[in-house]
């Protein structure tokens, strides 16, 4: 293929130069081409006088005058060395003047033969192998091949990889979501991953859980591609049929069905004739993880690429991570620098159904099958995703808020990369005490004093005021059991009526502390349902999976819910004093106090402190 189109491809055979580089002897600096013998003994006090030839050798100019004894020619970097010259003296070591017989150059330092001359073929010699078979062509190789005179490059054909999504619940991105429907994110991410590993993705669309339809689609995919990747249909439920179809096509059929891994247990691997087929789990994190572990190496081999090198680092685990014995579990983590300059690993804990876990993770570690978890503070070997990691300039660990996203957007516009890990107010406070973050956002209510956040200050921490947001009871607007009630009355109604189902919040969150205080020890129906965000609470109520919960006003409005105010809670930031002078910390504080930051917060319905 043309050299200009070969970026990212793999050479099919070794390539030899068809020309020398450089193709002629050339000057490597501005100066004068001359005979080194004519400069013997030259000094500042006693320079050698050489007659200057009447030509200037710039790049692309062929010399017309040969260098004879006692003469020199002005030459630019890259100029062709004229016949008779064996050295170049840099212009800074010379001076020109008019002599009786014309211009002369005074050489104030002796030159050695070959000085400042790049000889023909000194970089690349004609016939020399410049690139071996199986080499990845990057921008560096493009330049080298061009210098070697190669306009066309033989490359390995990219394997065509068909991508099929299966499931009655799947909807193409952009289409309206019916009840129970989810957007097909797997097809998009798998297509991109195929391309990243040297393959050519062939999207084959979404197919329902119907054996006849799926079998026909799989047969079309096998005809169109060198390999097939399917997502969904790997489990043993009534609707999961992909593995059964694979099992009755041409041998060898199913080679592996089920692996002792989490995520990824239902993985199915097989082949139809000589074409590999990978049936990945339907959950996004499981699909992406098993693709990277099992399908990507096959694609790279078909593309002629070497196995991807894996970088690793060590980090201590920030929180205890339980695991189910019997299969190896891979835990996605984000990394944060601690007070000693080491790394702390924070499990993302979003589950195999998460779309964002793999994209937000810096890496992952393994919990062996014979163990039931990893303890907090244990040192773990972290396999980095995408090679060497670069920590963000700003690390924020604690409670999440859309207002925080707005401030981080302002920093991103300035080129400052920030990361926010939502672990709850208490989790963030613990991280701040250990020096693992720059800020720990929190809305912790002290039941004894009725004050937010300040009673929780610890030595070495400063409290930075953030903004105020209204917490209240959320309910469906047509639910007459809550209409006309204020927030506290709505909590009492929810706690007293066994027919009302609560959606709670996770332990350690400021909202949970507030609600527990209002409930006074009561645990109404639904108390054990403890999602980690205001959005999850609002979605559960809006979809009828719960009748009431506590969330902030802006989220209630976004979901079209009724809202009974409870309190103006304080969303503030614990700042480890040892990090106060970091440039990214100062930039965050400036953005928080700026007119743009204040306007964004007010636009979200918050009141800047």
From TrEMBL:
Pathway given in the UniProt record: Cofactor biosynthesis; molybdopterin biosynthesis
Gene Ontology CC annotation, any one: cytoplasm
Sorted UniProt keywords: Magnesium, Metal-binding, Molybdenum, Molybdenum cofactor biosynthesis, Transferase
Enzyme Commission no: 2.10.1.1
UniProt keyword Metal-binding present: yes
Role: Catalyzes the insertion of molybdate into adenylated molybdopterin with the concomitant release of AMP.
UniProt-recorded name of the protein: Molybdopterin molybdenumtransferase
């Amino acid at each position: 293929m043309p050299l200009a189109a070969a970026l990212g491809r793999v050479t099919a055979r070794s390539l030899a130069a068809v020309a020398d580089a450089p193709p002629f002897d050339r000057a490597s600096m501005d100066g004068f081409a001359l005979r080194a013998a004519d400069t013997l003994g030259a000094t500042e006090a006693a320079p050698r006088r050489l007659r200057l030839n009447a030509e200037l050798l710039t790049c692309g100019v062929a010399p017309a005058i040969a260098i004879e004894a006692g003469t020199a020619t002005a030459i630019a970097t890259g100029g062709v060395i004229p016949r008779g010259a064996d050295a170049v003296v840099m212009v800074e070591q010379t001076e020109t003047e008019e002599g009786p017989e014309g211009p002369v150059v005074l050489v104030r330092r002796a030159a050695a033969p070959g000085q400042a001359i790049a000889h023909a073929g000194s970089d690349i010699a004609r016939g020399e192998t410049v690139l071996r078979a199986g080499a990845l062509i990057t921008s560096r190789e493009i330049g080298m091949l061009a210098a070697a005179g190669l306009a066309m490059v033989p490359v390995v054909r990219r394997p065509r990889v068909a991508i099929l999504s299966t499931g009655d619940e799947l909807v193409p991105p952009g289409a309206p979501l019916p009840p129970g429907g989810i957007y097909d994110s797997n097809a998009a991410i798998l297509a991109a991953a195929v391309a990243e590993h040297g393959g050519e993705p062939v999207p084959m669309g979404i197919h329902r859980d119907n054996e006849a339809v799926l079998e026909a689609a799989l047969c079309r995919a096998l005809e169109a591609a060198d390999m097939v990747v399917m997502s969904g249909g790997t489990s043993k439920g009534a609707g999961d049929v992909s593995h059964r179809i694979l099992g009755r096509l041409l041998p060898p059929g199913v080679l592996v069905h089920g692996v002792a891994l989490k995520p990824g247990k239902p993985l199915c691997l097989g082949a139809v004739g000589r074409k590999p087929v990978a049936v990945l789990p339907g959950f996004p994190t499981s699909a992406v993880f098993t693709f990277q572990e099992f399908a990507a190496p096959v694609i790279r081999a078909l593309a002629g690429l070497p196995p991807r090198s894996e970088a690793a680092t060590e980090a201590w685990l920030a929180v205890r991570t339980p695991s189910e014995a019997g299969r190896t579990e891979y835990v996605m983590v984000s990394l944060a620098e601690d007070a000693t300059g080491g790394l702390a690993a924070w499990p993302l804990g979003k589950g195999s159904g998460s779309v964002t876990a793999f994209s937000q993770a810096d890496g992952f570690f393994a919990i062996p099958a014979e163990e039931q978890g990893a303890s907090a503070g244990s040192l773990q070997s972290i396999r980095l995703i995408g090679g060497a990691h670069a920590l963000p300039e700003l690390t924020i660990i604690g409670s999440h808020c859309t207002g925080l996203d707005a401030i981080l957007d302002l920093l991103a516009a300035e080129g400052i990369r920030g990361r926010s890990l939502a672990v709850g107010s208490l989790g963030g406070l613990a991280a701040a005490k250990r020096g693992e973050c720059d800020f720990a956002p929190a809305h912790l209510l002290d039941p004894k004093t009725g004050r937010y956040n300040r009673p929780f200050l610890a030595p070495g921490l400063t409290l930075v005021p953030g903004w105020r947001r209204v917490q209240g009871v959320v309910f469906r607007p047509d639910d007459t059991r809550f209409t006309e009630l204020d927030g506290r009355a709505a909590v009492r109604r929810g706690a007293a009526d066994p027919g009302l189902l609560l959606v709670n919040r996770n332990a350690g969150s400021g909202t949970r502390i507030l609600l527990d205080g209002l409930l006074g020890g009561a645990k109404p129906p639904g108390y054990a349902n403890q999602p980690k965000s205001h959005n999850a609470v609002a979605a559960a109520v809006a979809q009828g999976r719960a009748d009431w919960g506590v969330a902030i006003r802006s989220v209630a409005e976004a979901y079209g819910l009724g809202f009974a105010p409870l309190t103006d809670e304080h969303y503030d930031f614990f700042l480890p004093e040892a990090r106060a002078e970091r440039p990214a910390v100062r930039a965050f504080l400036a953005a928080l106090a700026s007119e743009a930051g204040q306007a964004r917060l007010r636009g979200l319905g918050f009141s800047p402190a």
